[in-house]
Amino acid sequence: MAWVRRYGLLTEKQYLVLKLRFSGMTQDEVSRVLGTTRENVAIIERRARERVALALETVRIFKEMLSVKTVVVEAGTHLINVPSIVVDAANQAGVKLRANFTRLYDEIRYKARGCIEGVRVVKPVKILILRSGDFEVIPYGDTLKDVLRVRPSLRRKPSRQPQHDVVGPDHGGPPNPATPENP
Hints:
The protein is an alpha+beta fold. 42% of the residues lie in helices and 14% in strands.
């Protein structure tokens, strides 16, 4: 079995395909460079993107586990109030934030731009306060649901077994009133 160089969770081929695609090459051009088919490049790229999405989700979950306080900024909140809400939560947790008002405001506005219109929060934003004094902004929707949308194979497959108790005359339960014996 040949040894395959890895780049984190990516194989060497996945790394190369993503690198070439990010440089602006089409899948067809990448296939010619690597000496394979365009279809193979498409499969390699899809699997690489799935792995990257899972890695990002893993890091987000890890940061969430390390957080000492989580602040959820609800829709309708004025953006100017968010930094003071975060600072108050950090103070309650006994953490000195390594950020000033401007950094908090700018980072929230940048990282959660899809959740903000004008100066109002329109979708909830989760802010994790870490023990180190750092904070992490997580826009609404950046959850496992997004990863599952990217990689449907991770979804739970419906069980072939019934999810409920079967009740009826054949299963030891009360007789079914819809049977011909019970009009």
